[in-house]
Design brief:
alpha/beta; Molybdopterin biosynthesis moea protein, domain 2; homodimer; six-stranded mixed sheet; elongated; 30% strand; Molybdopterin biosynthesis moeA protein, domain 3; 7 helices
């Protein structure tokens, strides 16, 4: 029997992120960048907008021409023309004059505001009454009011949402330098594990981890590369890991990470070129038998074979490493967690962090987290769950009514 | 000047979801279903697992053989054999006997539990000492403990996460009946709007809405189909909408939804075959000039042209309709909202719902929502924001320190 491993505390575990460099970058068409991580700072090459624009349908005026205007005492303005959309007006406006304008139109020179059409009345072809005064700047966007030329509008390491995509469109940036999606190899191990298109004989079980881990990798913005299932055999696993080292940026090997007679992962990792075992064993439950190796500066993970353990280790431990090699800035890594209230007492062992699956229910305006107990080999516990809660390493348990924070799954 | 519209309350707005049927279904390979919406109930065609499995490395035993065992007074058991992984053991175990077994191995008949290897010592080839007693069921998963044959394991209308994908793998379901991704047409309008690969002349502005709305559609699980930009011209817009009716499940037309002289959207919708205008105008800010038409039971939307208004209307109004036609069950539609505390007083007009963009900051364990004020034509307000808060229709404003709920953007 091998010795049981010493665990590495999570602070130290997450420090190891800095060992692994971000992946390379690509130029990607704007229509495909949402969700990707920006790999360059973007500086405005002009003002946005580049001219003052109306934000209402109405009349462009000098605000002073409307001062004091009211229903009882309207201002009378001379309509000098109509602003054609998408064109620069060929006239300018003097005090006492107005130009008809639609939303998005360019304000003529001499104007500083727009009177809403609802606050005017047409008297004849060239005269309007204005019933309400406007302030300078009202119902218009000034030149450069959104972004000014030379301003840094987006920064390296931020994940691009729809609004950032729109902003890049505004500046005509058709191709954007973003980090590549990290390619992540997935290897399920175990003599008892069979592909899902086979019928299990007694003692066999279909491969679940390949599908759950591939799906999580996609959600994390990575590209899963699935290798064939490997039996409990050192040479076969070494062969697959050698392939993974060539073709991927990170590898996830599930099963074989513990210290039993058929647990080859750590020996295989040690046999890879330029490999350092960073840790074997972390103080979390489920998920204690987790291995991280630095193999030519690529993270190689040994994950537990139990389906729930593998998913939880992915969510709380592996995912931050994927964020790291994806190029995400550290200050953008953290996610806000949903607060909830525990429905029942729950015990925990000191000296480890317990991750408890919970179902969420809203009752009387309170969000309740209901623990779902069950063995870490039972996938039904993850299917019923909406999230995880963490019970700290120095805590013996939590009482009914305790405030908890939800890690969504 | 046209008459200003009457707004339709949001309760009524969301009731209109039931007008629109879900899209058709497809059989999709298991590796591509995560994030899709299940279109069938899945019933277990067998037990999961189909045999009792060890969850630890050790010895399969009858629990009773270990009762009373301790360090000082171990139980001595005869090792009858080793369970080969992925095979049915060819022997059975009697009281006083044990079978060596690895995690995931099939328990031999006659056993009901597993003693962890850490709690045993090998005496000779055929004898072990056991230092701790186990209870029946310990360190094993029983046949059918995860799911039982005949049980409904997943239901129509649920979005498939990684864990549901893994569950379908466990049952060998290689292709899954899911709802198609709704195809959503996107049409930007306005004489002043130009494609992003052109340089704007004075008075022109690049098309932002196509990019923001396409990105939001993808995030919502839809497939955006982008049409060329349409000028302020009835016939051109009618032509594009006619194409959208043939090729898409929903259409989003941005710009031209208000009541000005160049706002053709409502007239175009009215000219489409079998079209009913469901509403024109909703009591929200920004986003009041929003149109929904039922065109041959496809939702056709007129969205405001202002970039921020279009994004907010998409997020709070359009998205639930996409969920509806995507086949999501009503009980699965709601999302839990993150609670936060407002950093400053904010005023609001009664009679409308205000959506305020906010930035989130965590200080002293409290999540603060800081309002980002700015015109609805300024995209920078959405780029700076982490979420929206809603100020209700009967509320004149919120005070600093008020509890708010965050709609993520």
């Amino acid at each position: 029997m091998k010795k049981f491993f010493e665990t590495t505390n999570l602070e130290k575990v997450f420090e190891y992120r800095s060992v692994f460099p971000p992946v390379a970058t690509d130029l990607v068409p704007l229509s495909e960048i949402t969700g990707r991580v920006l790999a360059v700072d973007i500086v405005a090459d002009g003002n946005l907008p580049d001219f003052a624009r109306a934000t209402m349908d109405g009349y462009a005026v000098q605000a002073a021409s409307t001062y004091g205007a009211s229903e009882g005492s309207p201002a009378y303005l001379v309509v000098k023309g109509t602003v054609a959309m998408g064109e620069s007006p060929r006239f300018s406006i003097c005090p006492g004059e107005a130009a008809k304008i639609s939303t998005g139109g360019m304000l003529p020179s001499g104007t500083d505001s727009v009177v809403m059409i609802e606050h005017t009345e047409t008297i004849d072809d060239s005269t309007i009454e204005v019933y309400r005064s406007v302030a300078p700047g009202q119902h218009q966007i000034e030149k450069g009011e959104d972004f000014k030329k030379g301003e840094t509008i987006l920064s390296t390491g931020q994940r691009l949402r729809p609004q950032e995509t729109g902003l890049l469109a505004a500046f005509g940036i058709e191709r954007v330098k973003v980090f590549q999606r990290p390619v992540i190899g997935i290897i399920s191990t175990g003599d008892e594990v069979i592909p899902i298109d086979e019928s299990p004989k007694a003692g066999q079980i279909r491969d679940i981890n390949t599908y759950t881990l591939s799906s999580f990798v996609k959600e994390a913005g990575g590209v899963p590369v699935v290798f064939d299932i490997v039996g409990d055999d050192f040479d076969s696993l070494l062969d697959k890991c050698t392939q993974a080292l060539v073709h991927t940026d990170m590898a996830l090997i599930s099963g074989g990470s513990s210290v039993g007679s058929r647990d080859f992962t750590i020996e295989v990792f040690s046999s890879l070129p330029d490999a350092t075992i960073l840790f074997h064993g972390i103080p979390i439950s489920p998920g204690k038998p987790t291995i991280l190796a630095d193999v030519r500066h690529k993270p190689f993970w040994g994950l537990p074979g139990h389906v729930v353990s593998a998913m939880i280790v992915f969510t709380v431990i592996v995912r931050p490493f994927i964020d790291r090699i994806s190029g995400l800035s550290p200050q953008r890594l953290s996610k806000f967690r949903l607060p909830a209230t525990l429905t029942r007492n729950i015990s925990s062992a000191q000296g480890r962090i317990d991750y408890i699956r919970v179902r969420l229910n809203e009752r009387n305006g309170i969000l309740w987290a209901e623990p779902i107990l069950g063995k870490s080999g039972l996938i039904n516990t993850m299917v019923k769950a909406d999230g995880l809660i963490e019970i700290g390493i120095h805590t013996e348990g939590l009482n009914e009514g305790a405030a908890v924070e939800i890690i969504p799954i």
